[in-house]
Amino acid sequence: MVLEAGPQEIISYFYGVNIHRKYMLRCLQIAKNGLGTTAPNPMVGCLIVHNSKIIGEGYTSPYGGPHAEVNAINSVADKSLLKDATLYVTLEPCSHFGKTPPCADLIVAHQVGKVVIGLLDPHVKVAGKGIQKLRDAGISVEYGIMEAECREHHRRFLCFHEKGRPYIILKWAQTTDGFIAPERNLRKSNPEPYWITNTYSRQLVHKWRSEEQAILVGTHTVTEDNPKLDVRSWTGKNPLRVVLDREMRLDTGYHVMDGKTPTLMVSDPKHRGKGPKTVTYAFIDFSKNVVGQLCDVLHEHNITSIIVEGGAKTLQSFIATGLWDEARVFTGTTSFKKGLRAPTLSGRLVHTKRVATDTLNIYRND
């Protein structure tokens, strides 16, 4: 259609597309402010433009608070300008009542002139209904602007609603010779932590924890390392601790059982009714597909993203079933010569960076 237009129409078309991209990029930029606080809601970015000037912007508040569109509209000093303004938003405005009223209703109430959307919302309660509500009210709507970039930004939310499971991030640190832990006899004689990575990498891991809803480890990791699985080296909310403990071996002597941070213990049904009351329990059949059942449990608990931190057997089980989206692998400068081998995976290497003396490789499971 563009090829059949005249020169001026072509210039106007591409000018409009570029302007849309400019403002949608800003939406994506401010949307990142919600990382780690909005889930299970998506972290949406929104801005309002009048006569080529941004007059309002906002991003999703922590879960239970106002959505991005509400914050953007509330930030506009002169609400009379809204009827001649364009509202840009990374995800289709919601059309249903949840913790807050529908954003589409608020946009209609203010008679916003035009709405430009990055991505349709796959949530069954929205899925085009927000756009239809806007159009029924006479509001001009465009969507699919920077769709690929918006999908990447909203990957956790989309994975949860399109695949019925959380976005799964695998993480481990390995030595230069491919081990994630020294041999057991050495650990028994010297139980001090054997750090593979430097302090900067370890702090980065705590930052990552603050960005996701949950963190998962197996029983062996707890008994060997007694981890806290919190964000003490960063500022933010501690993730839900998820522990696979088939035989319910763990007691309140371990940090994950102390009740200071919520813990979900996944165990065998034969142990139902047992165990400390400091944690919440879920039960699965360990003789069947453990990872698949675990994803179902996490979906039922509205967990949109999780970091799997170990141990090697747990990590490899996710790799073997193909149920992972991203892997973050540190390689330090030490070597163990003998010990527990690091997991092996085949994925697409998307990024490599140095963290002081460590190397961080990030993979995607396409």
TrEMBL record:
Organism, as annotated: Pseudozobellia thermophila
Associated pathway: Cofactor biosynthesis; riboflavin biosynthesis; 5-amino-6-(D-ribitylamino)uracil from GTP: step 3/4; Cofactor biosynthesis; riboflavin biosynthesis; 5-amino-6-(D-ribitylamino)uracil from GTP: step 2/4
Known cofactor(s): Zn(2+)
Sequence ranges assigned to domain CMP/dCMP-type deaminase in this UniProt record: 18-142
SUPFAM superfamilies reported in the protein's UniProt record: Cytidine deaminase-like, Dihydrofolate reductase-like
Binding site for substrate: 209, 229, 232, 309
Active site location: 69 (proton donor)
Record's function text: Converts 2,5-diamino-6-(ribosylamino)-4(3h)-pyrimidinone 5'-phosphate into 5-amino-6-(ribosylamino)-2,4(1h,3h)-pyrimidinedione 5'-phosphate.
Catalytic reaction(s) noted: 5-amino-6-(5-phospho-D-ribitylamino)uracil + NADP(+) = 5-amino-6-(5-phospho-D-ribosylamino)uracil + NADPH + H(+); 2,5-diamino-6-hydroxy-4-(5-phosphoribosylamino)-pyrimidine + H2O + H(+) = 5-amino-6-(5-phospho-D-ribosylamino)uracil + NH4(+)
Residue sites binding NADP(+) per the record: 173, 195, 221, 225, 311-317
UniProt keyword Nucleus, yes or no: no
Protein name: Riboflavin biosynthesis protein RibD
Entries under InterPro entries matching the protein: APOBEC/CMP_deaminase_Zn-bd, CMP_dCMP_dom, Cytidine_deaminase-like, DHFR-like_dom_sf, Eubact_RibD, RibDG_C, Riboflavin_Biosynth_HTPR
Gene Ontology process terms (BP): riboflavin biosynthetic process
UniProt remark on cofactor binding: Binds 1 zinc ion.
Residues engaged in binding Zn(2+): 67, 94, 103
Keywords for this protein: Hydrolase, Metal-binding, Multifunctional enzyme, NADP, Oxidoreductase, Riboflavin biosynthesis, Zinc
Keyword Disulfide bond: no
Similarity field: In the C-terminal section; belongs to the HTP reductase family.
Protein EC: 3.5.4.26, 1.1.1.193
Family matches, as Gene3D superfamilies: Cytidine Deaminase, domain 2, Dihydrofolate Reductase, subunit A
GO MF term (any one): diaminohydroxyphosphoribosylaminopyrimidine deaminase activity
